[in-house]
Amino acid sequence: MELQSRIRSVSHYVPERRVTNEDLSKLMETSDSWITERTGIKERRFVDTTCSGTSELGEHAARIALERAGWKAQDLDLIVVATLSPDFYFPGVGVMLQQKLGCRTVPALDIRAQCSGLVYGLSVVDGYVKSRQAKKILLVCAEVQSPVLDLTTRGRDMAVLFGDGAGALTIEAVEGGEQGVIDSVLGSDGSGAEVLCMKLPGTATPGFISADDVQQSRVHPSMDGKLVFKNAVTRLLETAGSLMQRNKITAEEIDLIIPHQANLRINEMVRAQLGLPPEKVFNNIHKYGNTTAATIPICMSEAVAEGRLKEGALVMTLAFGAGFTWGGNLIRW
Ligand code: UT7
Question: Whole-prediction pTM value?
Answer without folding.
Answer: 0.97
